[in-house]
Structure to design on (326 residues):
C-alpha cells in the first residue's frame, strides 16, 4: 500500500453522502463493477463476455485483455461505467503458464538456452491465428522459464508486458533451435494485481444470478462483483475533501485547498488517482505538481481530471466558479 501523508488533519467527511466502496449495493456494483471469470477453452473472449451480459441481464459489459479461443484463465469483465477503465485493464502486465510441444531432435538444454535469449525487450508479432489485428511491437519479457519437462513436452511460465503473444514466443523458440515448437496449452494466471485465485468459472456466475433473481439472495453476487475502485488499489494520487469531490465529479480541476492527503509518490505530469475520504475513486487525473511541491503551496491547480468516474450527484455542490477549492 502506498504511503499516505496527511495534508489537512482537520478535514472530515459527511456520512450522508457517498459510502465506503464495499458498502455498495449489488445494483451499484453492476453499474460500475468488475467480475473476474475463469475463461474455459473453446469460446472467444467476446463470446464469454456476451454470455455474461445475457446472464446478468444488463445493457453494458466489456472485457479487458483478449484470450485466444484455446486459452483459459483470468478474463476481466467490466460492467456499466467500469468500461471506461478498459484501457487501464488492457495495460496491466500479465503472467501465463503453458505447455510447449517440442518436435525434431532438439534437446531441453538447447530449449533452455533459447528461452534465456528471449528475456528482456523483444519484438513480438502476433501469430496469424491471433484474435487481434497484426502489428509489430516491442514487449518486455520479465520472466520466461521451464517449470517441468516430460519427454517432448515442457511446462513454462511467462511474465510479460500487456499485449505479448506467447504463441509468438513459441514460434521464435522453434526458429532459434531449428525445430518445430507448438504451444498446445495456455493459461493466464495473472493480470495486474489480480490472479487466477480471484476468478470464478461461468457456472458460479450462473448459480449466483439464479440465487439473486429467483430467490432474492444477492450474497453470492456480492462476492463475485467487485466495485470498480479495486482497480486503483496501490496507485498513487490524492485524497480529496468532500467539497473538492463534488467539484471534480463535475469535471473541474483540483486546487490545493481541496486536498486532504497525498497517497504515494508522483511527479508533475504523472497520471494519478483522485479518491474521496471514503475511498471512492472520483477520477483519473494528470498531476500539475509533484508530491514534494504540493505541501509547499497554499493555492493553485494541482491536478486536472482526464476521466471522471464518480457520478456528479453523489456529493452536493459546495463550490463556486471553475475550480474545486473546498
Amino acid at each position: 500500500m502506498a504511503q499516505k501523508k496527511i495534508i489537512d488533519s482537520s478535514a472530515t467527511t459527511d456520512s450522508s453522502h457517498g459510502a465506503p466502496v464495499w458498502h455498495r449495493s449489488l445494483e451499484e456494483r453492476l453499474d460500475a463493477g468488475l467480475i473476474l471469470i475463469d475463461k474455459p477453452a473453446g469460446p472467444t473472449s467476446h463470446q464469454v463476455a456476451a454470455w455474461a451480459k445475457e446472464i446478468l441481464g444488463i445493457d453494458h459489459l466489456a472485457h479487458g485483455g483478449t484470450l485466444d479461443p484455446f486459452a483459459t484463465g483470468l478474463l476481466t469483465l467490466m460492467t456499466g461505467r467500469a468500461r471506461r477503465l478498459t484501457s487501464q485493464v488492457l495495460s496491466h502486465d500479465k503472467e501465463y503458464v503453458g505447455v510447449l510441444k517440442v518436435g525434431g531432435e532438439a534437446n531441453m538444454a538447447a530449449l533452455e538456452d533459447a528461452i534465456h535469449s528471449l528475456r528482456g525487450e523483444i519484438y513480438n508479432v502476433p501469430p496469424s491465428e491471433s484474435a487481434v489485428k497484426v502489428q509489430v511491437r516491442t514487449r518486455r519479457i520479465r520472466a520466461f522459464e521451464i517449470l517441468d519437462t516430460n519427454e517432448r513436452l515442457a511446462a513454462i511460465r511467462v511474465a510479460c508486458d500487456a499485449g505479448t503473444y506467447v504463441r509468438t514466443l513459441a514460434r521464435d523458440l522453434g526458429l532459434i533451435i531449428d525445430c518445430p515448437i507448438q504451444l498446445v496449452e495456455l493459461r493466464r494466471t495473472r493480470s495486474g494485481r489480480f490472479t487466477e485465485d480471484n476468478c470464478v468459472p461461468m457456472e458460479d456466475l450462473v448459480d449466483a444470478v439464479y440465487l439473486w433473481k429467483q430467490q432474492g439472495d444477492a450474497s453470492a453476487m456480492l462476492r463475485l462483483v467487485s466495485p470498480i475502485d479495486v482497480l486503483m488499489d496501490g496507485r498513487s494520487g490524492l485524497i480529496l475533501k468532500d467539497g473538492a469531490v463534488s467539484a471534480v465529479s463535475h469535471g473541474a480541476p483540483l486546487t490545493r485547498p481541496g486536498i486532504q492527503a497525498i497517497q504515494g509518490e508522483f511527479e508533475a505530469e504523472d497520471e494519478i488517482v483522485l479518491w474521496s475520504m471514503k475511498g471512492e475513486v472520483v477520477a483519473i487525473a494528470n498531476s500539475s505538481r509533484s508530491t514534494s511541491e504540493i505541501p509547499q503551496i497554499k493555492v493553485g491547480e494541482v491536478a486536472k481530471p482526464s476521466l471522471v468516474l464518480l457520478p456528479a450527484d453523489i456529493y452536493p455542490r459546495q463550490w463556486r466558479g471553475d475550480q474545486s477549492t473546498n
